[in-house]
Design goal:
Layout: H1 9-14, E1 19-21, E2 28-35, E3 46-53, E4 59-64, E5 85-88, E6 91-94, H2 100-117
Antiparallel strand pairs: 1-2, 2-3, 3-4, 4-5, 5-6
Length: about 120
């Protein structure tokens, strides 16, 4: 095994195309994960979108790398070289991608937090 092999990558890639209901109310998650060429926007060679949706389809949480994200507001703002970021309701923040397993862990932690806030899980 290569020393820099991302051990969670196969798990993440296997989730591609999956949509799963996560509670009895009807919240659901969707995974889109594809290998891509390594680029400055996608230095890990992945295009990904992991999302949590309300029963009506509204996105509540999202981790993706579909577009560059601004690091701060105002005239001094600048786009990051990488496109990794996370959405929570209407806010977007940069996300420091380290590996696939950590991405999945961070996503599920955020999902659990939102579901707790919404009273869906205890």
């Amino acid at each position: 095994m290569a020393p820099d092999r991302d051990l969670g990558l196969d798990t993440l890639l296997d989730l591609h195309g999956q949509t799963l209901f996560v509670d009895e109310i009807g919240h659901w998650v969707k995974f889109v994960v594809l290998r891509t060429e390594v680029t400055p926007d996608r230095p890990h060679g992945l295009s990904y979108s992991l999302t949590l949706h309300a029963p009506d389809g509204t996105r509540l949480v999202g981790f993706d790398n579909a577009h560059p994200v601004r690091e701060r507001r105002g005239p001094g703002r600048r786009a990051r070289a990488e496109s990794d970021h996370r959405h929570r309701l209407r806010t977007v923040q940069p996300y420091d991608y380290t590996d696939a397993a950590t991405l999945l862990e961070d996503f599920w932690k955020e999902v659990d937090g939102v579901l707790r806030e919404r009273g869906s899980i205890s």
